TrEMBL record:
SUPFAM superfamilies: P-loop containing nucleoside triphosphate hydrolases
Pfam families for this protein: Sulfotransfer_1 (PF00685)
Domain of life per record: Eukaryota
Keywords: Transferase
Residue span(s) of domain Sulfotransferase: 58-312
Family affiliation: Belongs to the sulfotransferase 1 family.
Entry keyword Thylakoid: no
Recorded GO MF terms: sulfotransferase activity
Name of protein: Sulfotransferase
Source organism: Gossypium arboreum
Length: 317
């Protein structure tokens, strides 16, 4: 049996559709509370601590996504919108820090280092993030009036983006990654359950959960940024719109601008397993999957998605 390089540099069994546990094993995924958690990176104990101890405030803002759906971009936009009266674009901390450093993850950052961190001194609104599904959020979030912004992306581009990103830990093919998605056995997967959890809540509680799509943000960045700001309670004034503030924020947070900032070109997040911030910026395009996935592969996952999302009004084109 052929061997492939795994995240720990050891050999793992070849992956075939019949080798059901291989992906989870080799990627260090643990099935926990119904989802596949990358437990080498995010210990389940940090999730339990977060669920047990986190006390949400009504003013909190939580950025949520599956990996590679547009997290970095959304964090940059949320940080800039919320802090635009404190920082200009020339002195914003985004010039010297990656967006992930400014909006920490509950599970991978805050509760990983300390089971019950003191978050009371963070100025309001507190900005947090997570890749966890809705069902795994702390109950205090669900009971509070805080705001959750969820971003999703067509899973085909996510697959290609993940494949490129994880080159530093494995040498699987894009087909392997597709197989993983078809089984729902990918980081924070299944994809459909993750998306449906937030989709349903955005329908049920639209003033608490905003459902965004990478493709829509790309297609009309200005309109989507205004929608985001309004949802967050930081709507742009007429004056700001007239003087071009929205366009300036959109341009500042664009792929081309962010990727060329020194913090993203040469920086690395301390204690992170990600070797360079450069990896968060690859091509930033919609539809790149056509260059990597065969039509048959796309059809296969499309059919699974159709079945899984049936009856929900949630679709992916
Ligand atoms: P993460 O979950 O590891 O934080 P995330 O930021 O969600 O990753 O996704 C990275 C993708 O967003 C990359 O996509 P690609 O591989 O298809 O290129 C990355 O290039 C893209 N990206 C990062 N910043 C931006 C941006 N400002 N505008 C558009 N796309 C972006």
């Amino acid at each position: 049996m052929e061997s492939k390089k795994s995240s720990l540099g050891s050999s793992t069994p070849d992956i075939s559709p019949s080798a059901a546990p291989s992906y989870a094993y080799a990627l260090g995924l643990t099935q926990f509370q119904g989802f596949w958690i990358p437990s080498r990176h995010v210990p389940t104990s940090s999730i339990i601590s977060f669920q047990k101890y986190f006390q949400a405030l009504d003013e909190d803002i939580i950025v949520v996504s599956k990996p590679k759906a547009g997290t970095t971009w959304l964090k940059a936009l949320v940080f800039t919108i919320v802090n635009r009266h404190s920082y200009t674009l020339s002195n914003t901390p985004l010039n010297s820090a990656n967006p992930h450093q400014l909006i920490p993850f509950f599970d991978a950052d805050l509760y990983k280092e300390n089971p019950n961190p003191d978050l009371s001194k963070i100025s309001s609104p507190r900005l947090f993030s997570t890749h966890l599904p809705y069902s795994m959020l702390a109950d205090s979030i669900k009971r509070s009036n805080c705001r959750i912004v969820y971003i999703t992306r067509n899973p085909f581009d996510i697959i290609v983006s993940l494949r490129h990103f994880f080159r530093f830990i494995d040498d699987w093919s894009v087909e392997d990654y597709l197989e993983m998605f078809c089984r729902g056995e990918e980081p924070y997967g299944p994809f459909w359950d993750h998306a449906l959890g937030y989709w349903n809540m955005s329908v049920e509680k639209p003033s608490n959960v905003l459902f965004m799509r990478y493709e829509e943000l790309k297609e009309d960045s200005v309109a989507q940024t205004k929608r985001l700001a309004e949802f967050l309670g930081f709507a742009f004034s007429m004056e700001e719109e007239k003087t071009g503030v929205v366009n300036q924020i959109v341009d500042f947070c664009s792929f081309n601008n962010l990727k060329d900032l020194e913090a993203n070109k040469t920086g690395k997040i301390p204690r992170s397993i990600i070797p360079s911030n450069k990896l968060f910026f690859r091509s930033g395009k919609v539809g790149d999957y056509v260059n990597h996935l065969s039509p048959a592969a796309v059809e296969r996952l499309s059919n699974i998605l159709k079945e899984k999302l049936n009856g929900s009004n949630l679709t992916f084109n």
